[in-house]
Give the backbone structure.
Amino acid sequence: MGLVAPSRRSTQMYGVPFPCERHWLTSTCNHQSDERDSAYSDHQTSYTMSVTSSVFNFRYENGRRYHAYAEGMYPVPNDEVEADRLELQHHAFRLTLDGKLHRAPIPQDIHNVLDIGCGTGIWSIEFADEHPSARVLGTDLSPIQPCSVPPNCEFLIDDFELDWIFHEEFDFIHTRALVAAVKDWNRFFSQAFTNLKPGGYLECQELTFPIKCMDPSVTDENSPLMKWSALFVEAAGKLGIDGTGPRHLGPKLRSAGFVDINAKTCKWPVGRWAKGDKFKLLGDLAYADLMDWLPSSSLGLFTRVLKWTQHEVEVFLAECRAEAKRKDRHYYADVLFWYARKPRNTTSVYSHEPVHDEEELELDDQNQTT
Ligand SMILES: C[S@@+](CC[C@H](N)C(=O)[O-])C[C@H]1O[C@@H](n2cnc3c(N)ncnc32)[C@H](O)[C@@H]1O
C-alpha cells in the first residue's frame, strides 16, 4: 500500500529513536523539497525522499483535497477547511472536559504516549506541552501537522489499519474523532492492547451517529438533518464503517482484554438552545463544527458511495444548514469518552461491567424564539 519499501538501516531522528522501520517521518519542514533533503544525513534523506514522492501527491475531487497515502482509505478531506474544523472541534472537546485533554487516570509524569489518527496534531502538541516528561508520537495518513512542535512530540505517516509495529510499548494511547475512520474496532483494540505496557491506558474520545433531537416529532422524513445523519450511516456502512460504532465499544474493549472500562456520554447542543453558559459556548462551537462537517463528511461519501452528483449533495446540504439554524429545533450530538486499562498481570483478570454515566441537557426557556 502506497510508499516505497522502508529502509532497514538504523533510525535516529531529532535525537529520538525512530520507533519503527515501516513508518515515515512527517516533519513538513523537511520533506517538501528534495533540495533541502540533500542537506540531511543519509538515513534522514532516505525517509524524507520517500515521503516527498508519495504522501504529498494529494487527490483533488469536487473542490476538496484528500490524502494520498493509502488513497481512498478515509473519505474525508485533509485540506485547510477540514484542518480549521479539527482545531475548532479540539476546543469543543477540551471545553467538554473542563479544559482537560483526557479522562483516563494517568499520572502527570507519564512517559510514552501515542495519538493514533492525530489529524493536525493539536492534541499531541498540547499534551506534549503539558507533560514535559512524555514523549508523544502522533500518527496519521495525512502530513498536515505543523513543523514547529515541542521537542517531545513527533509525527509519522502511518495507516492504523495495518499491523501496528512500534519498538516500544506505550503508557497511554489516545484516539479522537475516528468514527468515520475505524473499520474494525475489535482489531483496533487488540492492536492497542498489544502496544500498551501492562497497566497502561487507552482512551477513545468519539463523536457518534445518529444526530439526535429533543423534539419527538422530528424524524428522518421531516428533517433534512436527521435524513443526512441516516444517509451518512448508510453510506459509511457500505464502506465497512459503523457510524454508530462508538456507542458500542464496551464489549469490544472487554474482549480485547481491557479492564476498568469507563464511559461517559456528553452532549453537544447544536446552537445556543441549552441552559448554561458552558452549553451555550459548546452550542456555538458545535454549530460551527457541523457547518463544516456537513460538506467534509458528505461530499466524498455521497458522490462515491451513493452516486449523487456534487450539485445534488450541495443542494441537500443547503437544506441541512437551514434546518440546523431553526430556533424551534433542538439538535444535539452524543460525545463519548471511553477509557480502559490493560491489566498489570494478565494471568488473573476480572473485568467488571463498564461504568457508564450520561450528561443531561436542559432547554433554556429564554431562548425559545422561532
Ligand atoms: C476527524 S479526524 C480527527 C483528528 C484528531 N484525532 C483530532 O481529534 O483532531 C480523523 C483523522 O483520522 C485519520 N485517519 C483516518 N483513517 C486513518 C488510518 N487508516 N490510519 C491513520 N489515520 C487515519 C485522518 O487522516 C484524520 O486526520
Q: What stands out?
A: The pocket of S-adenosylmethionine is lined by residues 67, 73-74, 78, 86, 90, 117-119, 122-123, 140-142, 159-161, 176-178, 181 (CB under 6 Å).
